[in-house]
Amino acid sequence: MTSSDHHCQPTGPGVLEGEITPRTVAAHDISAFAGMVGDYSRIHLDDTFGVGLVHGGRIAHGLLSASWALGGLSLAAPPTMGRRDPSAYLSSCEANYRRPVLAGTTLSCHWRTISRGSDEAGGGGARTSFEMRDAEGRTVTDGHVVLRRGQGVSDFRAPDPWPAAELVPDPAKTYYLEDFTPGAQAGQTEGRTLTEADVVAYGGFTGDSGGHHGDAEFARGGLFGTRVVQPMLVFNIGFALWLRDWCRMRMPDGGLAGHLCDRWVFHRPFHIGDTLGCRHRTLAVRKSKSRPDTGVVTCGLQLLNQRDEVTMSAEVLMMFPAGGA
Hints:
Blueprint: E1 7-12, E2 15-24, H1 27-37, H2 42-45, H3 47-51, H4 62-76, H5 78-81, E3 88-97, E4 106-116, E5 125-133, E6 139-149, E7 187-188, E8 192-193, H6 196-206, H7 216-220, H8 231-246, E9 258-266, E10 275-287, E11 294-304, E12 310-321
Antiparallel strand pairs: 1-2, 2-4, 3-6, 3-9, 4-5, 5-6, 7-10, 8-10, 9-12, 10-11, 11-12
């Protein structure tokens, strides 16, 4: 990549913005991402099934475009991701999925970062917004990340884990929006041990490969004292673990639900060799005012390591069909 591949310029005191090199989503990228994170949903992988959908083909994971946005920021604007700052870490992220992305779509990304002062934990930080657009200029994914700085692992606090629960769907039942209740539909997924191969593969695929994740010497002198797993990779895999568990409930319309938004908050690092699991529950349910045949289910996720320490809290918003008896 040359310096002409992306642009970065100041637009005001403490403000930078720029563009990330456009990247085309190929069919093999969708398959590679599915294998990397463990989300094998049919809507992403089955061409025959995709032809019958309203979009006319299988679509990329929303989290693929969000992951490319964060990886592009790591390459094009390292300060936004703390790539070269040993005391910096991503404290939170939000991604909103506005349009489906089919194979062959070329995505570009505009970003804008605003530096913060002492209101950010640890004496400084930044908030960076990003917008992924297709070749027609339409927004497909947007959101933001917040960078903070800390002094050491003692800075981090995490909520208590939710009680372990098992999701036991009724195999004879089709679930509609009205069947979801805040505090219910709770469960705990199987675990997945994250390895060196996961960190390297994800770093190469997205560009989020430096600093705390890919440079052992840099990481040794940094906030965590050793390399840690990319927070976005932790969320991606935790999401896939949750989705497999959640989709054991039989859904209407061939089992499709629309993925609208993800929000996560970092609590503590996830180390290479740790085992990731997810506890989940319904947080909120609301019916759509503009589309009475649908609504939104907000699912809460806690991503835990093998010591039942919460490493990340998250919310996932899913559009879901209404109208069940």
